[in-house]
Automatic annotation (TrEMBL):
Taxonomic source organism: Pseudodesulfovibrio profundus
InterPro entries registered for this protein in UniProt: Acyl_CoA_acyltransferase, GNAT_dom
Keyword Nucleus: no
UniProt key word Transferase: yes
N-acetyltransferase domain boundaries: 2-150
Protein name as annotated: GCN5-related N-acetyltransferase
Any one GO MF annotation of this record: acyltransferase activity, transferring groups other than amino-acyl groups
Entries under Pfam families matching the protein: Acetyltransf_10 (PF13673)
Gene3D superfamilies documented for this protein: 3.40.630.30
Keyword field: Transferase
Matching PROSITE patterns: GNAT
Length: 150
């Protein structure tokens, strides 16, 4: 059984473990002090949401949001937990936390990348639509910006 909750300080190390797992897709993060400090600040400010496997209290997914820009900045689920609804739980919690208002944006992989299929399906299921090309991410992959109108 899994649950969704705001991250707490003790979730930093599990979050960084998840970040390290997805570095081949996202680019270097864990060894970047600015990234680590940014995550610490986001946790402190209630901007990090976790999906936790209850029996083990293990973080199996997380996302970082920015309430001011109404953006899902970062979202990942452990490889072994993908396909079980953890990503949908994170997006739903992020949208609830961001509340009503202006459109919500997320940057994800472009459709020409195999790894993009599940991510794009997830965002599509919540009403996100591709609005423009994004930048190439630090791992060298093309991205797109998707937006969910309110």
């Amino acid at each position: 059984m899994v649950s969704v909750r705001l991250a707490v300080e003790s979730d930093l190390e599990p979050f960084l473990g998840l970040a390290r797992e997805v570095e081949p897709l996202f680019g270097p993060m864990v060894d970047n002090p600015d990234f680590v400090e940014g995550v610490k600040g986001a946790i402190k400010n209630g901007q990090v949401i976790c999906v936790v496997d209850k029996p083990y209290s293990q973080v199996i997914g997380a996302c970082v949001i920015d309430s001011e820009s109404r953006t899902i900045l970062w979202l990942a689920v452990t490889e072994k937990s993908r396909g079980n609804g953890a990503g949908a739980m994170l997006v739903a919690a992020a949208l609830e936390r961001l509340g009503e208002g202006d459109p919500v944006q997320v940057t994800t992989f472009s459709e020409d990348m195999a790894e993009s299929i599940s991510a794009r399906k997830l965002y599509d299921s919540f009403g996100f639509k591709e609005v423009k090309a994004g930048e190439v991410n630090p791992a060298g992959y093309a991205t797109v910006v998707m937006e969910r109108p309110e």
